[in-house]
Amino acid sequence: MLRYDIPELYRRKGDIPLLMEYFRKHYNKKFHKQIMAYSSEVQDIFLAYNWPGNVRELRNVMERVALLAAGREVTLADLPPALSAGEGVRSGP
C-alpha cells in the first residue's frame, strides 16, 4: 500500500490563495453569488491561520463566507468569529 505524506496546510501557504480562489468560484456558482475579492485583512488572516482541519476546514469556512457575505468583497465581518478575532493564528514558522 502506498502512503502519501502531505504537509499540513499552514506549511503550504502557497496553496491557500489557490484554494481560496477555487472555493470562491465553486461557491459563487453553487449559491449564485458574485463574490469577487477578499480584503487584505482577510487574506492575511487566511495565510496566518493554523488550519488544524486542513483543506476541509478551509472549504467549510469558504462555504460559510459564501453564504453570509453580503457584498462582492469578503471582509472581516464575513468571517467566523474565531478567525476574525485572530484565534488560531500561527506566530512562528
Secondary-structure class? mainly alpha
Flag low-confidence runs. none
Topology pattern, helix = H, strand = E: HEHHEH
User: Per the principal axes of the C-alpha atoms, what is the gross shape?
Assistant: globular
The average pLDDT value, as a whole number, equals 91
Strand arrangement, major sheet: 1-2
Radius of gyration: 14 Å
Determine the fraction of residues in helical runs and give it as a percent range.
Answer: 40-55%
Strand tally: 2
Beta-strand percent range: under 5%
Structure description:
It is a single chain. By secondary structure, the chain is mostly helical. Helices cover 48% and strands 4% of the residues. The chain is built from four helices and two strands, in the order αβααβα. The protein has helices spanning 15-31, 40-48, 54-68, 81-84; strands at residues 37-38, 73-74. Strands 1-2 form a two-stranded parallel sheet. α1 (15-31) packs across α3 (54-68). It is globular and about 45 Å long. It starts with 14 loop residues before the first helix and ends in a 9-residue tail after the last helix. The mean pLDDT is 91.
Structural topology:
Elements lengths: L14 H17 L5 E2 L1 H9 L5 H15 L4 E2 L6 H4 L9
Parallel strand pairs: 1-2
Compact summary:
Helices cover 48% and strands 4% of the residues.
Key attributes of the depicted protein:
two-stranded parallel sheet; globular; mainly alpha; 2 strands; single chain; 93 residues
